[in-house]
Amino acid sequence: MLTFLGIYVRGRDTAVYSGSVIEVFERIGISEEAVRSTLTRMATRDLLARHRRGRKVYLALTPRAVAVLEDGYRRIWETGAVNRDWNGSWTLVGFSLPDSRRSERHDLRSQLVWAGFGPLQNGLWIAAGEVDVVRIVEDLGLADAVTVLTAQATKPTESADLVGKAFDLPTIAARYQAFLSRWDVTAPAVEARDDLARQLLLHTDWLQLVRQDPHLPAEHLPAGWPAVRAEKVFRTLAARYDPAAAGIAAGLLDEIALPPAAAGS
């Protein structure tokens, strides 16, 4: 759903009819019940706003959804799968939360992984480059329990060693290899009904990959790192599917224009 909203609703002052969203997802084998449940859940979580026109309910993005989708767009099209612009710095996050605060500790770790951090040692997590963690710790109410620093590795510590210690490179590489096994073939996603279905499946697979990728420095990754080829495959297929997919979506989607003040609100 986030893939669909990111491609066909983000950046437009429109709301889309829920029934036409159901039609789109029917093309990739997702039931009407599942789509309605997802849309309801997203509205409850302040990701979608309802606009009624007669008997129809149209759905628009909220500011929270816009922020999520903009982050996804940056990760896909701007950040890329490999960090070629690393300046040699690391962001360090230190914390010590007792078992009585286990839930908060779990939430913090989950958010740090999402932001590209890996555990270097107990209570000390690192990420390549300068990463802003203010929103993470403030949203969790942990500003007083967390120490944040930026630093550079010095002898005897090597940045390559930090990458190997804090990040599970085999697991990350395996994710990209799985992507390539599905998409770097003569006829990808032959089970999909059309290019709209293939577009949504491709973008979803890729977004899941880059959101789990800690964006490590290219110079400290193993030779032949599969993310490089995977990104080329994604961009090639996206360019192939997008024109036909846009035409199909235009014929399916029922949209209404919203005043700028209403869009994203």
UniProtKB/TrEMBL annotation:
**One matching Pfam family, short form?**
PaaX
Stretches assigned to the Transcriptional repressor PaaX-like N-terminal domain: 2-64
Q: Where is the Transcriptional repressor PaaX-like central Cas2-like domain?
A: 84-163
Taxonomically, which superkingdom?
Bacteria
**Domain Transcriptional repressor PaaX-like C-terminal, residue spans:** 167-248
Q: What is this protein called?
A: PaaX family transcriptional regulator
* Organism whose genome encodes this protein: Pseudonocardia xinjiangensis
